[in-house]
Specification:
- The complex is a heterodimer of chains A (519) and B (394).
- By secondary structure, chain A is an alpha/beta fold.
- In chain A, 36% of the residues lie in helices and 18% in strands.
- Chain A is built from 16 helices and 17 strands.
- Chain A has helices at 13-24, 65-70, 110-134, 146-161, 164-173, 178-185, 189-200, 212-226, 238-250, 293-301, 308-316, 341-344, 354-365, 410-426, 444-451, 503-515; strands at residues 4-9, 29-33, 44-48, 51-54, 86-88, 96-99, 102-104, 254-257, 261-267, 270-276, 281-289, 323-330, 347-350, 374-378, 393-400, 436-442, 487-489.
- In chain A, the strands form three sheets. An eight-stranded mixed β-sheet of chain A has the order 7-6-5-13-14-15-12-16, with helices on both faces. In chain A, strands 1, 2, 8, 9, 10, 11 and 17 form a seven-stranded mixed β-sheet that branches.
- In chain A, helix 3 packs antiparallel against helix 4 (146-161).
- With 394 residues, chain B is α+β, with helices and mostly antiparallel strands.
- Among the domains of chain B are: 16-60 and 148-229, Probable tRNA modification gtpase trme, domain 1 (Gyrase A, domain 2), CATH 3.30.1360.120; 297-378, Elongation Factor Tu (Ef-tu), domain 3, CATH 2.40.30.110.
- Chain B has eight helices and 19 strands.
- The longest helix of chain B has 12 residues, at 210-221.
- The chains are: A alpha/beta (519), B alpha+beta (394).
- Chain A binds chain B through residues 266, 268-269, 298, 302-312, 315, 476, 483, 485, and chain B through 71, 74, 78-79, 99-101, 129, 132-133, 135-137, 279-285.
């Protein structure tokens, strides 16, 4: 007799979603997390006195609509802003605005507009093919299983329905890079780089890296599954974490916060429970990890507890990130040249032409600090005054590319880099530094430490074809089960992957129930 | 014709000067990059030295790894399919190791020197696989192939000759035991192991004493009719004894390109080396599944009628091909025509009567022969001296 049917390691969004679905199916579930708040990367933190920010993910654009409705997240307190436009800031203040499927400003002409619409149309069709795959377990290619065959049949049919030209395009594009695809479709440099930025966010890749088309499609597919557009969670991203936790609890799951899982334990040849940092042991029929694959297999289970081929695959799993964040506490609303206050509340990006993007990536390959950066900026306090004292504001920005471990070490590199980044922002927001009350730089290695994501990679592993679909996280441990009996995965390291999608959690729960793993 | 040039890229063993001097036929082969003799003077006479007196075989090219450190014992247990805890200190065990798919990567021997110190002898270079296996273990794996020279000293008079060399009480050493001596101030280890199925030993020394060891052995063994033997004679002896040879009777899984050409331990008749009582070893999950669902092939030892070796033969059952032969020989001492075959399940159980399709040539005239054969339980050649302790005096 075990203490629980299932223990979910990690109270990130996928862990909570998986637990909620299992609890709804009358299973006894415990979620354990070392952090004191639920939500994992969906979290809010007060980083300066009275100033709070979404301290990891800052936009919600991909959360699956079925998850939102099944778990009644609106009833649990989740409230979203209207969909945001993306505004790519230009040095001459004639900014490029992408909203409602159209592009304007920055000298965009009819030809650019036609190209943009055509490109979006094509991507939508591709995303529709991937949607089928994302909503269920990924099919294995060789085993004689009817569910998998049906999924493959649907995929094949989906590809066929694309028509010959689009099908050829998908096959071709999926393996090349976003740089070439942009040059193929567009002539407008700012339009190219604004789209290319979405292909590299949260990764360790530049626009010319292979797999960037796949990571772009991943993002677009998520947006189609969600349907909310790019939104801001009112009250900070932690509200999503809280809502998911409430929903899981309402379904009957227990959540234990503030004590981390120290190890996943095996009895004989089967996983039998976990040991917590406080030394206590909890038993269960299965353990489901929402931690990233490296944490799960290397740290919690240990390579000595699995067969060597699997240990090798886990060790070779790629999960570096080149994305950092800055958090600024401001005494007043900053002024960005050429932007109205309404526009300032939208998603602002600063991204140089694609060749410069690629050059910005190069130094981090050699653990050096780049001399120019890409920004994805949010000033959430315009729509949500709860995050800062009256009349004051916060600005958060995702920053690419920042090395995981610069040669000189973060103690030495941190201050100068933060200063440089604020300087780069100030080009577009004169006087920004005079408004500063507090500021912080969160590096990829800080993310690894604070949110326990190996490599600081919030996708729980590079989004590339060799680590996707039926190969995520790696062959032999797919379809949410692992090669270790009794150990399952439900995090972003499982299909369909990273971002605040919620599908790994939901798909895992459904697969675990279907397999009868809790019987 | 010699297959080796003098400015060759081939490696030579520490015994090479002596081997070369005795290699009357100048018939050389390539054993994993080393120049080694196929035959010294006459394959059959070399074989009969092993069976009647003593044969000496240079096995220095064998890959040897020193595995040590606090987790060495746990490391070995995860690596190989058998239970390593059952191999005592100063004991040797035959073992196979698999990949995660339960397919055999190689076979070899494990020498246990201490609780956490082993030597693994393998057919293949295994540096890469052994290194990946260290993930998660506090263990050191060192390739010591070139720092150990070794001779197989095999045959009825081998114990006597080695005792003369200074290996006291060697006749008390049990099969798969190890004993430690010194030879000219250097360590010399003797294990009662071999690949001939006869009474025999393997002698392990530092390379610098190799030539002196060879000279002394042949000097002391002269009266006991000691002879060197090459790989062709070894091949005959090992087939007669029922031993599998990697790359002949199975392909190491890492070398296989085509789907379905690898083999599991069960398919090689080595299920007795798979210990599911261990909670973890490489290939365990896949092998458990295979045990439940059944194997694709069965390893069969065939007693073939007549005296024509069934080399490369198809094996038939009721006119249908059900398998192929991997090794075959007319075995002089057992006086039987043996063949190893991989037979498709469910055929090939002990007692099953099959037919070997044999082609042979006499003076450019090819003859086709359908030879009846029967699956037997084990090798026919099982001399008592192979297992007797004390080793019988000769």
């Amino acid at each position: 007799m075990t203490d629980y049917d299932a223990i979910v390691v990690g109270a990130g969004h996928n862990g909570l979603i998986c637990a909620a679905y299992l609890a709804k199916a009358q299973h006894k579930v415990l979620v354990v997390d070392g952090r004191s708040v639920p939500g994992g990367c969906a979290s809010t933190r007060e980083f300066a006195d009275g100033f709070s920010v979404s301290d990891c993910a800052q936009w919600l654009s991909q959360l699956d609509r079925n998850v939102m409705s099944d778990l009644k997240l609106a009833d649990m307190g989740l409230s979203l802003s209207d969909a945001k436009a993306t505004i790519s800031l230009q040095a001459d203040a004639d900014h490029l605005i992408l909203a409602d499927g159209t592009a304007s400003g920055a000298g965009v002409d009819d030809e650019d507009l036609a190209a943009y619409r055509g490109f979006r149309h094509m991507m939508t069709r591709f995303a529709n093919v991937l949607k089928t795959l994302y909503q269920g377990r990924p099919p294995k290619l060789v085993e004689k299983n009817w569910t998998d065959r049906l999924t493959l049949l649907k995929l094949g049919l989906g590809l066929k329905m694309l028509g010959k030209n689009h099908m050829q395009d998908l096959m071709r594009l999926a393996l090349i890079n976003i740089y070439d695809v942009m040059n193929e479709h567009f002539k407008h440099p700012a339009l190219k780089s604004a789209i290319a930025m979405d292909a590299v966010t949260g990764t360790n890749m530049g626009p010319r890296s292979p797999n960037t088309v796949y990571s772009y499609l991943h993002r677009i597919t998520g947006e189609h599954l969600s349907g909310t557009g790019t939104t801001q969670v009112m009250g900070g991203m932690g509200v999503l974490g809280d809502a998911l936790a409430e929903s899981a609890k309402a379904a009957g799951a227990e959540i234990k916060l503030g004590v981390a899982v120290k190890s996943i334990e095996k009895t004989g040849d089967k996983v039998s429970g976990v040991e917590l940092e406080d030394g206590s042991h909890i038993t269960s029929k299965i353990v489901i990890s929402s931690a990233d694959p490296t944490t799960t297999f290397k740290t919690l289970l240990g390579y000595h507890q699995m067969e060597a081929g699997m240990a090798k695959r886990a060790e070779l799993y790629r999960n570096r990130s080149g994305t950092a964040k800055i958090h600024l506490a401001l005494r007043a609303l900053p002024s960005f040249t050429g932007l109205t206050t309404k526009q300032l509340s939208q998603r602002l990006i600063i991204v140089p032409p694609m060749d410069e993007m690629e050059k910005a990536l190069n130094p981090i390959k050699y653990r050096e600090i780049s001399d120019r950066h890409l920004f994805d900026i949010s000033v959430p306090t315009i729509e949500d005054s709860s995050l800062a004292p009256e009349g004051q504001h916060v600005l958060t920005a995702l920053v690419h590319y920042v090395p995981f471990d610069p040669k000189e070490g973060w103690d030495e590199a941190r201050g100068p880099l933060l200063e440089r980044l604020i300087g780069e922002l100030e080009v577009y927001a004169p006087g920004l530094s005079s408004l500063l009350i507090a500021s912080e730089l969160v590096t990829p290695s800080d993310f690894e430490h604070s949110h326990k994501v190996t490599g600081g990679n919030w996708h729980h592993g590079e989004l590339s074809i060799d680590q996707a679909l039926m190969m995520r996280p790696f062959p032999g441990s797919t379809q949410y089960a692992t090669a270790v009996d009794g150990l399952f995965l439900c995090g972003a390291g499982a299909h369909p992957g990273g971002g605040l999608l919620g599908l790994p959690g939901r798909n895992a729960a459904r697969e675990i129930i279907k397999r009868g793993a809790l019987a | 014709m010699s297959t080796v040039s003098r400015d060759t890229m081939m490696l030579t063993t520490p015994f090479h000067s002596r081997v070369e001097a005795m290699c009357d036929l100048n018939d050389w082969g390539n054993w994993m990059g080393y120049t080694t003799p196929n035959a010294y003077f006459d394959v059959e006479l070399e074989y009969f030295a092993v069976r009647s007196t003593t044969g000496v075989f240079d096995l220095s090219p064998m890959n040897k790894y020193r595995i040590s450190g606090p987790d060495a014992s746990r490391y070995m247990d995860r690596l190989v399919t058998r239970d390593v805890s059952k191999i005592g200190i100063d004991r040797v065990g035959y073992a196979i190791w698999c990949n995660d798919a339960g397919q055999v990567l190689d076979d070899g021997t494990i020498f246990r020197f201490a609780e956490n110190e082993f030597r693994l002898c393998s057919y293949q270079r295994a540096d890469d696989w052994l290194a990946w296996n260290t993930l998660g273990f506090d263990v050191s794996v060192e390739n010591v192939s070139e720092s150990i020279a070794a001779l197989a000293v095999q045959g009825p008079t081998s114990c006597t000759i080695l005792t003369l060399l200074g290996c006291e009480n060697l006749n008390q050493l049990k099969p798969f035991g190890m004993a430690h001596y010194t030879f000219e101030g250097h360590p010399l280890m003797v294990s009662r192991t071999g690949f001939t199925g006869d009474l025999g030993y393997e002698v392990w020394v530092p390379p610098e004493t190799a030539e002196a060891l060879w000279d002394r052995l042949f000097e002391l063994g002269h009266e006991y009719l000691i002879k060197p033997f090459g790989s062709h004679a070894l091949e005959l002896a090992r087939i007669e004894a029922g031993f599998l040879q990697a790359h002949v009777d199975f392909l190491p899984a890492e070398d296989v390109v085509r789907v379905g050409r690898t083999r599991s331990p069960f398919e090689l008749g080595l299920g007795w080396l798979v210990h599911f009582s261990k909670p973890l070893f490489n290939g365990r999950s896949a092998l458990l599944k295979e045990q439940e669902q059944g194997s694709r092939y069965r390893f069969a030892l065939l007693d073939v009628a007549g005296n024509k070796p069934a080399e490369h033969s198809f094996i038939m059952k009721d006119g249908k091909v059900v398998g192929t032969v991997t090794s075959a020989a007319w075995c002089p001492t057992a006086k039987s025509n043996l063949a190893y075959a991989q037979i498709e399940m469910p055929h090939g159980a002990v007692g099953d009567e099959l037919v070997a399709e044999i082609y042979y040539q006499r003076e450019l005239h090819w003859t086709q022969l359908y030879a009846p054969c029967k699956v037997i339980d084990g090798p026919i050649f099982q001399p008592a001296r192979r297992r007797q302790t004390p080793a019988p005096p000769q």
